[in-house]
Amino acid sequence: GAGVSQTPSNKVTEKGKYVELRCDPISGHTALYWYRQSLGQGPEFLIYFQGTGAADDSGLPNDRFFAVRPEGSVSTLKIQRTERGDSAVYLCASSLEPGYNEQFFGPGTRLTVL
Amino acid sequence: EDQVTQSPEALRLQEGESSSLNCSYTVSGLRGLFWYRQDPGKGPEFLFTLYSAGEEKEKERLKATLTKKESFLHITAPKPEDSATYLCAVPAGNQFYFGTGTSLTVIP
Question: Would you say B15 and B83 are in contact if contact means Cβ atoms under 8 Å apart?
């Protein structure tokens, strides 16, 4: 079946611009996670959705970052006033149920801020 | 405060040369330890979950073990296609803390 998909695969933007990154989780998966991965590092937690609500957004680095999941399926990570330090691979993962279960990751969106 | 530490950072093996990767964790009340494999340009791919000390799981040439403070990923007679970065992760609350990974290269 279809896995987690993320679009775009690559995004190049200029400092100060607004970007949106999209995640389509596996159908029926209720839990959705966003991570950020810098070169040579492991994924860093950003936000966790249980259904439509953000159950934990403590990993978002500042208020320029925001994420939504309005219908409990697709999620969008939004970054305002991008900075060069935001450059990284943004990964989305979903799991069938909330809790301590295996996560299925998408291929990621590589964001480059010039 | 580091939750998860992996060693070594990089490992080069000859094909057929067995070895082990280490993942040590400091989170209390372990709710599972997860191993993932990540190929370049791709998202992590789930391998194993271990929940209690003494537990072992195997998949092809990989075997994961767990103690109260660390986990090992044993690779027996590796092949070049086992080359990847291996990540471990532990949950704490709603978050999953990942280590920085071990980059494994298996030379034919």
Answer: no
